[in-house]
Write a structure and sequence with these properties.
four-stranded antiparallel beta sheet, disordered N terminus, Neuraminidase, mainly beta, 6-blade_b-propeller_TolB-like, about 35% strand, signal, disordered C terminus
Length: about 400
Amino acid sequence: MRVGKGKAPWLLAACGLLLTGCAQFDDRAANETFEPAPELTAPAGPQPELPEVDGDSGESRPSSPQTSVPPPQGCTDYDQSVIATCLDTVSALAALPNTGAAPSALAGERKTGRVLQVASGSAPAEFITLDVQATGDGGLTGLALSPTYTEDQLVFAYVTTATDNRVVRFTRGQQPKAVLTGIPKGATGNRGAIMTDGAGALLVATGDAGNPSAAADPASLAGKVLRIDTAGAAAQGNPTPGSRVYASGVHSPGGLCKATDGSRTWITDRGATVDSLYAITPGASLAVPTWTWPDKPALTGCADNGTAVVIATSVGANLQELPITLDGSVGGKPKALMDGKNGTAYGRYGSLDQIDAQFALVGTVNKDGGQPVSSDDRVVLISLQATPNGGSGKD
């Protein structure tokens, strides 16, 4: 894939960052290598010559010192894949509809409750500040646009308050309105996730509030995947009519995502002994994980590009790429990417939201137990059409 003059810098950066480009996973190619990626033609302004990646080997050849990205200076980050800087614990992202301009999103800060509109080339603009309590793992942990966002401009958030966990909705310039309250709150297990299901409803993943037995209790909203309408009621077509419960057995959800064709839906979860990825089956308990991580890297958001599920991690400070087949079964072991071993790293990842089959946004949480650089925390644009092992460095 060649990206030449006339292309937007953010597109150059994203395609170059994950430069294998646009190769698809193929387990038959285990012993083959792709041709070296073509050299990029730099646009005006700071643009690094990105390293090449040797196909399936995962080994990068770093660019020369003369072409490497300079380290951040204050809130200025010279990495053109970074679209927002100097935020705080970006634990929630909602990509805004693509209007042909640079990618933009709403970014939520877990501890402050601030929601900011971010875009490449623009300073973050405050959208709203939600009243949250960030004790334990709670706070602002999920954002999703309304299923009819282009008409109503509504945004939904999963938040922890002084008394409960809840779903609220808001628009710019208006006070938030409670949609679903009374989700149990505990000393731990308060993190939640939210997304649209593609059929006019919202999926809401709730933690078990530190009580694992609540995840199996059909009368509790804790430890569940709920499916609700935009008013907070049980959505039409749920497994049990009149019940919001769509699936059960959740403990500390990191993120929700679905295939772009809607054929499967995933949830990441942090259990007592392992972190897990589950395919959600309506009406069923999360009994058999698709994959587990005994080292507990703290799974957060995820994306499904059709050939792999890409999962962000916080403590692990990497992305996990798990290849899948057309029927959603595992096609190989996960591979750790963007972890700094081959150049590209942004530290701890706290959120991930898919823009389309090719691109996604990730947010960092380095100010929450990591090693922040001067421009942290950040929102970064990545390509999903072969997740990077090479690229520009963190520092």
